[in-house]
């Protein structure tokens, strides 16, 4: 799990930041990007860190505070549905990664991202295929982003009752589609997404 980072540390690089996102696929809610530079990759407290999608909600919640405590620095950035609609999903993701990196309390010596390169970044960086499965710092970032976003969507469930946001987290499920047919679009839906455009409903 720490092969890439171990190689970088063996070459003299000590502050390595992993970056990952949560929420590319949903048609509602923000895109959330996290950056994490871990203090000690060999810490037993981080032994359960893995791709957030491979962990239960309970384990992710348990690891959320552990990762923050075990990090040299961490940051979490939200990209609103409105900004996604204005500049597009991919550009929002890249911009979010930039913001997350720039918000770290320390400057990383090297950056690992999950699948997407950050062009023009002054800090050396590498886009890692399936990075949240092979790089611990990226896995840690994926957990922070996932837990943070899930909490937002649970709050939105109370704010916008009837859509089921606490359960599906804004993804395009059958239940979500049925709720959209009944209730129309609310302000956290991404108006640029094809299924939302197709509804042609008014924003609440």
Gist of the model:
The chain has 204 residues and is α/β, with parallel strands linked by helices. It has helices at residues 3-10, 57-69, 81-87, 89-102, 131-134, 136-159, 165-168, 174-183, 194-199; strands at 16-22, 31-38, 71-79, 110-114, 125-128.
Descriptive terms for the model:
204 residues, alpha/beta, Nucleotidyltransferase, domain 5, five-stranded mixed β-sheet, 44% helix, 16% strand
Binned strand content:
15-25%
Look at the helices and sheets and give the structural class. alpha/beta
**Count of alpha/pi helices:** 9
Question: Element order, helices and strands?
Answer: HEEHEHHEEHHHHH
Mean pLDDT, nearest integer? Answer: 93
Strand order of the largest sheet: 3-2-1-4-5
Structure in words:
This protein has a single domain (3-199), classed as 2-Layer Sandwich (Nucleotidyltransferase, domain 5), CATH 3.30.420. The protein is of the alpha/beta class. The longest helix is centred in the last third of the chain and has 24 residues, at 136-159. The chain is globular and about 55 Å long. Helix 2 (57-69) packs across helix 6 (136-159) and helix 3 crosses helix 4 (89-102). The N and C termini lie far apart (45 Å). The chain has helices at residues 3-10, 57-69, 81-87, 89-102, 131-134, 136-159, 165-168, 174-183, 194-199, and strands spanning 16-22, 31-38, 71-79, 110-114, 125-128.
SSE layout:
Elements: H1 3-10, E1 16-22, E2 31-38, H2 57-69, E3 71-79, H3 81-87, H4 89-102, E4 110-114, E5 125-128, H5 131-134, H6 136-159, H7 165-168, H8 174-183, H9 194-199
